[in-house]
Amino acid sequence: MDKIFKVILLVLIAFPAFSGDGDIVKATTTDATVYAQGAQLFQKASYSISAGTSEIIIEGISPRIDQNSIQVKATGSVVILDTKYTIYYPEPKEVSLEGLPLKIRNDIKLLEDSLDKIAYEILEFQSEIDVLNTTKVIISNNGMFKGVGKVNDSINLLKETVDYYMLKMVEINKSISSLNQKKADKVEKQSAMQLRLQKLKQYQGSEGEVIDLGPIHRIVVTLTSKEAVSGKLNISYLVSSCGWTPLYDLRSDGLTSKINLTYKAKIFQNSGLDWEDVNLSISTNDPYQNKTKPDLHPWYIDYYMYRNDYYYDNAPAQVKEVEVLGYTNTLNNTRAMEDMDDVKALYSSDFTQVIRQLVSVEFKIDLPYSIKSDGQEHMVLIKVADLSADYTYYSIPKLDNGVYLVAQLSKLDELGLVPAQANIFFDGTYIGGTYIDPTTIDDTLNLSLGKDPNIMVKRNLLKEESKERTIGDKKEKTMSYAIDVKNQKATEIDIIVLDQLPITQNGDIKIEKLDVGKGTVDEFTGIIEWKFNLKTKESKKLNFSYKVEYNKDYNIILE
């Protein structure tokens, strides 16, 4: 007995202050980093423990938590022994009816009486169903219906037996089906009553406040210390059901060499926690994306074996075809009339700090944000930048006589952009949308800003110089065109005009370039490019011609 007492004493000395239940503290969300998919929440909680080993139970945890991502740090002279994620289901407490309003008590009494009555009704339905099922078994096991006895000796008796069996079984099955339907209706009403009764019993106070008995998500941290200590717990973890999508606005007034880029983020979160005055960061990283590099394995090839047609025709669809997949990549014009003495408002982008990481970009916004856990989109302005742009006019009169103003943007790689839709505004007017994909552009993005009606382009076939003749078994066609360009703007312009010569992969067809003036020809595509400057009110004529020789027994369409 003395030995047992000494062992117990030693255990108590070794663990003088271990709390099995643990101290419950509430975590507060202070920061949130939103990724393309998911978000990382940063929370803080305070603790106070005595000497020894203690458990701190942290509540206020998101139900969308990824428990593998939990990280906990602590301040104070403590050692973190363990961290784990748990879900606590509160036990419903017996609520005394004494303190409840009279109407609530009466409703509870009526519901309890109704539940007792409906339970008996469900029991009655089930008893009738059991009797009918037993009757079916008795009839089915009767010797007459199993062909035992004299029933097989008489056709009339056999017919009467079969008719009785069919009539009785149909009648019983209909009764069982009807009773099951009535029982299901009663069970549904019973469930609704039980839910209503539970809510009434949880009624507290005159405000009609209801206690939430749902699951409580917790992080349990085990600490040990040689002395009583207080400090802070810093918790972080990933949550799902959050994310952001980028959106760009591109604005140009057509007068300066700058394009204004507004970089915005549409953030949504359904983490189960409302974010109140959190420090918000937006990251281009995706924590759920595969981070493991691929490996190459030996690639074996062999001779193609003869295919049995019968097997092929009857083979599963997936063995008939093998495919190697690869990756391929107006609003009215308005002018704001502002008083020069007014101070302009600031935007969230004025408080954004860009943090460049090895494989992603993070935008840290030094403003507090509050975002409800409702899945609704919230627009956040990330960055505003003025981009250098070179303006050039383009025209392809073979397809369209219009002349398009194109802004060429450079140095986009410095902005940390991701693929997204962009709205284009020119001179205060919305002119359409485009798609910006930094992964597919090199150094320059060509942005079409629409047609300019003050530049005229017209393409004409010169019929007198276009000829057709036959030489032996060959036919020869000569095509000649003139493109007229006129600048009716009050300023000079740089313009590029494109047309094309035909090309062929047929060795029997010969194509000869006759004249393209000062244009340059891409020998692979046949595209002709004229690049020149036009002063105001100046006109220019571009001529080009070519000759095609081919077999006279065939036709070729050149227009």
Write up this protein:
This protein is α+β, with helices and mostly antiparallel strands and 559 residues long. Among the domains are: 16-30 and 42-92 and 214-235, no CATH class; 102-210; 455-551, Sandwich (Immunoglobulin-like), CATH 2.60.40. Helix content is 19%, strand content 43%. The chain contains five helices and 27 strands. It has a 16-stranded mixed β-sheet that branches. Strands 20, 21, 22, 24 and 27 form a five-stranded antiparallel β-sheet that branches. Strands 1-4-9-6 form a four-stranded mixed β-sheet, with no helix packed on it. Helix 2 packs antiparallel against helix 3 (155-201). The longest helix is centred in the N-terminal third of the chain and has 47 residues, at 155-201. It is extended and about 105 Å long. The termini are far apart.
Give the topology, please.
Blueprint: H1 2-14, E1 23-26, E2 28-34, E3 37-49, E4 52-59, E5 65-74, E6 79-88, H2 102-140, H3 155-201, E7 203-204, E8 209-210, E9 216-225, E10 229-252, E11 258-269, E12 275-283, H4 309-314, H5 317-320, E13 352-356, E14 361-371, E15 378-396, E16 400-410, E17 420-426, E18 429-436, E19 444-451, E20 455-461, E21 467-471, E22 474-487, E23 493-500, E24 510-515, E25 520-521, E26 527-534, E27 539-551
Parallel strand pairs: 1-4, 2-12, 10-17, 15-23
Antiparallel strand pairs: 2-3, 3-10, 4-9, 5-10, 6-9, 7-8, 10-11, 11-15, 12-14, 13-14, 15-16, 16-19, 17-18, 20-22, 21-22, 22-27, 23-26, 24-27, 25-26
Helix pairs in contact: 2-3
